[in-house]
Design a protein that fits this description.
Glutaredoxin, alpha+beta, 39% helix, five-stranded mixed sheet, 8 helices
């Protein structure tokens, strides 16, 4: 009986979500009229983002958080090789003394609306925080564009000014980005093996280059969890 009730609850929640999404979709072109570089899919996803986040909060989907403070990294984060989205190399040493929020991103994802919150977070805390975006096509092909197209999309539609890096693989494998190898191997970062489970997972590094937090996709950049970690 419990199983049946649970199934019915999930079904009605899905129906309610669908109704909210349809309601949001009616206002797509009104709410995104200045988003000229967006596809119809991207406009729908942007308009439906609030409804999707409401659903994830109710169901707890993709809401995992992990914290482990003060663990010294066997390998230095600041020595890792990194290439920006314009193909220029960058020295991570310039971020010493600041917290660093690293996010794997995508342009065609239900969570893409988080770009707006990430930019706002960056502007509000840029004296002590840097945000680094890593476009990746690892989850259901939701970042198929070129680096140039990605940079243009982020700037035009979300005003992104924080550093974006060259598109790469963030999931575990032979071609995994070196920074994400460090983030997901405890022999490198000291404790964590949690890889991105979807687009817009977040990793926080403290002022000494130690990995301290992992936040799954549904933990918004503006959430109290993230803000508390940044302000510690």
């Amino acid at each position: 009986m419990q199983s049946k009730n649970k199934k019915n609850w999930v079904k009605w929640m899905a129906v309610l979500l669908l109704l909210v999404l349809l309601s949001c979709s009616l206002n797509i072109f009104k709410t995104t009229k200045n988003s000229n570089s967006m596809t119809t899919r991207q406009k729908i996803l942007k308009a439906a983002y609030p409804a999707m986040m409401w659903f994830t909060k109710v169901t707890g989907v993709n809401s995992k958080s992990i914290t482990n403070k003060g663990v010294t990294s066997p390998e230095s984060f600041y020595n890792l090789p990194a290439t920006l989205i314009d193909d220029s190399a960058i020295n991570l040493n310039q971020y010493k003394g600041k917290k660093i929020l690293l996010v794997n991103t995508a342009s065609d994802c239900g969570y893409t609306g988080q770009y707006e919150q990430l930019e706002k977070l960056y502007q509000q805390h840029r004296e002590k925080l840097v945000i680094l975006g890593f476009p990746a096509n690892d989850f259901k092909g939701q970042e198929k564009g070129t680096d140039l197209a990605i940079a243009s999309f982020c700037k035009l539609n979300y005003g992104v000014s924080f550093p974006l890096f060259k598109k790469s693989k963030v999931i575990i494998g032979t071609d995994q980005n070196e920074i994400f190898k460090w983030l997901t191997q405890k022999n490198k970062n000291g404790w964590n093996e949690q890889a991105p489970t979807w687009n817009f997972c977040k990793y926080l590094i403290d002022e000494q280059g130690r990995l301290t937090h992992f936040f799954a996709s549904s933990v918004e950049p503006s959430s109290q969890e993230v803000l508390a970690a940044i302000n510690q």
